[in-house]
Amino acid sequence: MRRFLPVLLPLCLAGCFSMPRPFSDPGQQARQLATANLPPARLAVPTSSESLLSDDAAKLWAHDVAEAMVAQSVPAIAQPKKPGDWWLKLSASTRNGAVVPHYVIMTPEGKARAEGDGAPVDMAGWSAGDPLAIKGAAMQEAPELANLLTGIQADMMQQDPHSLMRRAAHIYFEGVKGAPGDGNTSLARAFYASLPDKTNSVQTNAKNADFTVQGVVKVTTAGTVDKTLMQHIEIVWHVVTPDGKEAGAATQLHDVPAHSLDNAWGDTAIMAAEEAAGAVRTIITNYSGREHKPLPASTQTVKPSDAKHA
């Protein structure tokens, strides 16, 4: 029995995600499919008037915070808030001889959703508008703020009966192509049987599907091993969203004696399909964010440093 090596390839970064505004209607498919690891809308970062900085330095802080959030795959932009935007309210205060940045995640309705303090910053550097001090503060807090936004997104998903946190994903399986022998059929049958579980259902048409999956097999010459001519088998299981963007791919690689799969694949197809099904389920889970822990709605202060445990 040949065992294939699955390799997860997460192909989508921040630019690949569709970011609908949470209180507008982005269409049926977008309502049903939650994006992964990201907050529910663009995050505006206005210049603070309570930053203990000069006007120019305050603008720099907003810019650096937005830039640091983009590096965390959050679609942030340093500009005044607009209708429908979530936004980040920045301020700073003095405490024990240092400056403490303060961050509040605000909803489009102007309500505080989560807030917390950043690490203390040297007062002299902050008051002087030192670019390194300002950028350092922004970069230090961005990952924790992104965690808070992920929790907020998960809370919204939990409340939405159409989200993948509340129902199984509908997966359209297009089949397998490019395999020698009976590989297209045997891989497809085994994958179709292996993929479904309580959080994923498989269908044979694209209607109302959350994701489409297709397996593509490529066979190339791989030289010789102990005078035996080998072939390199590559199987890529593409996972695609309804708008045609690739959520990820699971790649399986193996070298086999040449032409050994020209007829029946047998147990090789079963083993490859079972491994691929697990990888595809992981891609869908990661992309949808359906296992993220919701951040409970609360009026209490949530410190960024506590975000991972919220």
Topology record:
Blueprint: E1 5-9, H1 28-32, E2 43-44, H2 55-70, E3 76-77, E4 86-95, E5 98-106, E6 112-117, E7 121-122, H3 123-127, H4 131-159, E8 169-177, H5 183-194, E9 200-203, E10 211-225, E11 228-240, E12 246-257, H6 267-288
Parallel strand pairs: 2-3, 2-4, 8-9, 8-10
Antiparallel strand pairs: 1-12, 4-5, 5-6, 5-7, 10-11, 11-12
Helix pairs in contact: 2-4, 5-6
Describe the protein's architecture and organization.
The protein is of the alpha/beta class. The protein folds into 2 domains: 138 residues, Double Stranded RNA Binding Domain (2-Layer Sandwich); 128 residues, Rossmann fold. The strands form 2 sheets. A 6-stranded mixed beta sheet has the order 1-12-11-10-8-9, covered by helices on one side. Strands 2, 3, 4, 5, 6 and 7 form a 6-stranded mixed beta sheet that branches. The chain is elongated and about 75 Å long. The C terminus is likely disordered.
Strand content: 25-35%
Quickly give the structural class: alpha/beta
| Total domains | 2
Order of helices and strands: EHEHEEEEEHHEHEEEEH
Helix tally equals: 6
Major sheet: arrangement of strands: 1-12-11-10-8-9
- What is the fold-level CATH name, i.e. the topology of the largest domain? Double Stranded RNA Binding Domain
Number of strands: 12
CATH architecture of the largest domain: 2-Layer Sandwich
Q: Which segments are poorly predicted (pLDDT under 50) over 5 or more consecutive residues?
A: 5-40, 299-310
Q: What is the global morphology? A: elongated
Note the main sheet. Answer: 6 strands, mixed
Query: How far is the N terminus from the C terminus?
Result: 45 Å
Radius of gyration, in Å, reads 24 Å
Helix content: 25-40%
The average pLDDT score comes to 84
At the first level of CATH, what is the class of the largest domain?
Alpha Beta
